[in-house]
Amino acid sequence: MEADVERVLIAEDVIEKRLDAMAKEVRQDFPGEVIVVIVLLKGALVFAADLLRRLPRMLEIECLNVASYHGGTESAGKVDFLDRKLPEVKGRRVLVLDDILDTGRTLRAVADKLTEAGAAEVKTGVLLAKDRERAVDVEADYVGFEIGDEFVIGYGLDYQGRYRNLPYVGTLKREAM
Ligand code: IMP
Ligand code: MG
Q1: Could you check whether the bond before residue 42 is cis, i.e. omega within 30 degrees of 0?
Q2: Model confidence band, residue 71 (pLDDT cutoffs 50, 70, 90)
Q3: Cα-to-centroid distance, 32 and ligand 1 (Å)
């Protein structure tokens, strides 16, 4: 697996330090409240596990299965909700976590759905935000790292379902794609 990595973009220790700071931001924004954290699967799995363990407080974790990439390296332009039911969010303050903000369609669609479902507030956090124009009007409230507009893998992010378990964020060799 590591042989397919072209370059390490964000090393594991750098991610860990940044997560400490992000957790602090989240703690300050939701003092004492029991919030609902919605983890977008599967990409945000690793990020959420590491961030949430830095929040030593009462919260509820829900997962939402969404698909937008369909295996390639380009956003498909359509967001599919793969679950039959949305988590119960009526009147609740919600924090949505995703791996990366790219076109923005995923976060926009999820935030809209949760607002429709009666959430009192929807905040969003991503490990990575690509420096590019968004296809829709959305930005995340918490951003781990701004990166260039290139395809990355690792720390939850995949190429065709693989590389999610790399402990860092990197780029993929051309011959591996
Ligand atoms: P958006 O809806 O275009 O913002 O894309 C968000 C989703 O696309 C993320 O949840 C990722 O699953 C996927 N994605 C976007 N960029 C990358 C990338 O560079 N590597 C792997 N997955 C990506
Ligand atoms: Mg994804």
Answers
A1: yes
A2: low
A3: 32
- 119 near 87, Cβ under 8 Å? no
Residue 102 designated active-site: yes
What secondary structure does DSSP assign to 100-159, as a single string? EESSSHHHHHHHHHHHHTT-SEEEEEEEEEESS--SSS---SEEEEEE-SS-EEBTTB-B
Could you report the per-residue pLDDT of 15-46, keeping only the tens digit for each? 999 999 999 999 999 988 899 999 999 999 99
Residue whose CA lies nearest to ligand 1 atom number 20:
152
pLDDT bucket at 69, cuts 50 / 70 / 90: low
Q: pTM of the prediction?
A: 0.95
Q: Report the C-alpha gap between 51 and 127 in whole angstroms.
A: 10
Ligand 2 centre from 41 Cα, in Å? Answer: 7
Judge: domain 13-150, CATH 3.20.20.70.
no
Amino acid letter for position 73 = T
Q: Is the CB of 151 under 6 A from ligand 1?
A: yes
